TrEMBL record:
The protein's name: histidine kinase
Entry-linked InterPro entries: BphY/WalK/GraS-like, HATPase_C_sf, HATPase_dom, His_kinase_dom, HisK_dim/P_dom, HisK_dim/P_sf, Sig_transdc_His_kin-like_C
Residue intervals of the Histidine kinase domain: 234-448
Enzyme class: transferase
Enzyme Commission (EC) number: 2.7.13.3
Transmembrane segments: 7-28, 194-218
Keyword entries, A-Z: Kinase, Membrane, Phosphoprotein, Transferase, Transmembrane, Transmembrane helix, Two-component regulatory system
An example molecular function term from Gene Ontology annotations: kinase activity
Catalytic activity: ATP + protein L-histidine = ADP + protein N-phospho-L-histidine
């Protein structure tokens, strides 16, 4: 059982860790991809903005605005003369020039415009207006869903570009410059990656949570296993002693002629009857305890005088105890709606424990406290107490606090779990507070 559970847990841990690692890697990969996508989009938009800006700065040939855009280029002059020289006075003679008109299709038109604008602006000595360019850039970015204010700066050949910077080169004034935009990608990244990131995060939480929960269940199962073994060894111990006595007295009757001696026979059969009674009592107790779960659901609620109920119970207890129990009750009759049988069983168990574990010298007290929201019963003793580690588990089935000798006080570790079940079946709550060497207090709270 232990091995199988441990093996299952190891397999589950490996599986869940792989899922979590994969999710983390996937998140990292998606994030990096998105960041790269953002950068590429921003650079393209900046290049396009520069083209647009430059085409606004120069007057482009009107033939580019025709329905069928074209460019007419000077091919050659006959006799061959440098085109520039044609304008000078020494070439006044007649010459023939050859031009060629090139149609520009739709696909190439933006590039041709951009190229001509770029070449023309290169020759002009007009300063670059960064504010106008930034305005164009903002609009271009917005088309790609990146909405943010942009501040542009110029750098002569940057040595390095930072990760949050977007750069594009302009061949201006013969010496190239680089336009730099500082952009924060976080807003865009959040908008584009929020949903997958949340889903992935929830998956990681669910996987890790289920592994943790499985660990808790397995640990609880292993503990229950150990406690059950203790329980069985306790029962065996409780039953073996009377059986040994029965066997001895039986042997005495059979072997040592006790049968012929009516006086001895009566003594031995008397002992046997006692033992059988005890055994029967023990079996009934175990039966009773094992039926607990079924009994929780049955309730017989009635109006009861709380003071009277407690007084009767304590009086009965005092009859079998040499130390009186201190009872503190309100000084007026209190009617509560409850199941008196269950209340008695609860208190019987707690008082039994107080007597069993707190020692003969201990002072035991029961107190009833009434408030507008409900009523409380407090059972306290000033015995040796329960350590904080054990206090967490005392309401668990079969749990017994281990002392040096496991069987120094008889019990099956079922009393407090029974009490808790009963309290909860009456919609109440029970808590235990204890300090080693100072004693223990059980507080039960019932709503009105
Ligand atoms: P059992 O008495 O049969 O062992 P319980 O469920 O009644 O089982 O109690 C669980 C454990 O809690 C006990 O083994 C005991 O160690 C501890 N315990 C309960 N009541 C007290 C008390 N009043 N003082 C000290 N220890 C207590």
């Amino acid at each position: 059982m232990k091995k199988r559970l441990r093996f299952t847990f190891i397999i589950a841990t490996i599986t869940v860790s792989s899922i979590v690692l994969f999710q983390l890697y996937w998140l990292y990969y998606t994030f990096n991809n998105a960041q790269r996508g953002f950068h590429i989009t921003a650079v393209r938009a900046l290049e396009k903005s520069i083209d647009l800006y430059q085409s606004q700065q120069v007057e482009l040939p009107t033939s580019l605005n025709y329905k069928k855009p074209s460019l007419t280029v000077f091919m050659r002059a006959k006799p061959s003369v440098e085109a520039f020289d044609l304008d000078t006075p020494k070439h006044k003679e007649v010459f023939k020039a050859e031009f060629n008109t090139v149609a520009i299709d739709k696909q190439h038109e933006p590039y041709v415009r951009a190229l001509i604008a770029r070449l023309m602006t290169q020759q002009m000595h007009k300063p670059l207006d960064l504010n106008t360019l930034a305005g164009i850039y903002e609009k271009e970015l917005a088309k790609d869903g990146i909405v943010m204010p942009v501040i542009l700066t110029l750098r002569k050949q940057p040595l390095s570009i930072l990760p949050n910077e977007v750069a594009s080169r302009i061949d201006y004034y013969k010496s190239p410059v680089v336009v730099i935009a500082k952009l924060s990608s976080s807003g865009w990244m959040i908008r584009h990656n929020l949903l997958p990131a949340i889903v992935s995060f929830i998956l990681i939480l669910l996987s890790a949570g289920s592994l943790w929960y499985m660990g808790v269940i397995i640990r609880r199962q292993l503990k229950l296993d150990r406690l059950k073994n203790d329980f069985i060894s306790n029962i065996t111990h409780e039953l073996r002693t009377p059986l040994t006595i029965l066997r001895s007295s039986n042997e005495a009757i059979a072997r040592f002629g006790v049968a012929g001696n009516p006086e001895k026979l009566a003594r031995y059969t008397g002992i046997n009857a006692d033992i059988i009674d005890k055994l029967e009592g023990e079996v009934e107790r175990i039966m009773d305890i094992s039926m607990i779960d079924r009994k929780f659901s049955i309730k017989e609620m009635k109006q009861v005088d709380l003071n009277q109920l407690l007084e009767n119970l304590i009086r009965r207890f005092d009859l079998i105890s040499n130390k009186p129990i201190l009872l503190t009750i309100p000084n007026r009759p209190i009617q509560v709606n409850t199941d008196p049988y269950k209340i008695e069983t609860i208190l019987n168990n707690l008082l039994d424990n107080a007597k069993k574990y707190a020692g003969d010298e201990a002072r035991i007290s029961v107190e009833a406290v009434i408030s507008h929201s409900g009523w409380q019963l407090l059972v306290s003793d000033n015995g040796h107490g329960i350590s904080t580690d054990n206090l967490l588990y005392i309401f668990d089935k079969y749990y017994r606090v281990e002392n040096g000798d496991l069987h120094d006080v008889k019990g099956y570790g079922l009393g407090l779990s029974h009490v808790k079940g009963l309290v909860e079946s009456l919609n109440g709550k029970i808590i235990a507070k204890s300090k080693i060497g100072h004693g223990t207090t059980f507080t039960i709270t019932f709503p009105v």
